[in-house]
Amino acid sequence: MVTTPESIRQTYEAQGFAAPIRVLDPEMAEAARQRLEAFEAWRGPVEAKMQSRKTHLLLTWFDALVRDTRVLDAVEAIIGEDILCWGTSLFIKEPGDGNFVSWHQDITYWGLEPATGVITAWVALSPATRDTGCMRMAPGSHKQLLEHRATDDASNLLTRGQEIADGIDEDAAAYIELRAGEMSLHHAATAHASAPNMGKDRRIGLAIRYMAPSVRSVAGLESALLVRGQDRYGHFELETPPVTDLDPAAIAEHDRVNALRQAVLYRDTGS
What we know:
The chain has one domain (5-265): Jelly Rolls (Sandwich). It is 25% helix and 25% strand. The protein has helices at residues 5-15, 26-43, 60-66, 69-79, 107-110, 248-265; strands at residues 17-22, 83-93, 101-104, 112-113, 118-124, 135-137, 148-149, 163-164, 174-176, 182-187, 192-194, 203-211, 216-217, 223-228, 237-238. α1 (5-15) packs across α4 (69-79). The model has no long low-confidence stretch (mean pLDDT 91).
């Protein structure tokens, strides 16, 4: 367990990730899970390829999580006191569904620079273990960008099925096992992956993408939510958080900013 801002920063800078970090009490994690599953029951299961949808702009409890002091204090230790939330993703694996995440580095397809100002906080709402398909990370891989290729596999949770072309030293990779309410932090260039869920419970992770306001999008117009400090740069359109769950204004804002994001994500695919 890494607990102090200094230990988080030192571990992160050396390895490209830091974990586990306790950010939610078990009761809070369970309450968040229940609210997520109530949302799923209302709208139906979130399709595997459609889980990166800035859902925090629709749900007030998710918006509160991306602003949680314990989460932001850990992020601040790495990127500074001014923080934007660029996006959120749901990574849900059902027992035996075969879904996985191939080895990849996020920054290679996000279109953000510099990578040092971009970080993911991955919060577990259910246990993430070797059995349930926890993340694996390659220590030190954040120091070099690797060649990627696109694949076509419906079980790959990544939108474009991207994977590192020449593979990873599996023996050196670390298993990032988390209890409900714990999180990991990883650099935007850290190579990571996860195997299918072979356990008995759902593996539910909420990935929150944070960045310093000095970061730029080099791929097109984008938006972000200011969650701490100030934005002195204006590189991103600032988003409006939800006032109540799924109100018409929140749905309209969610649709607007996702159109921007999808245009960038598929900028070179012809889709």
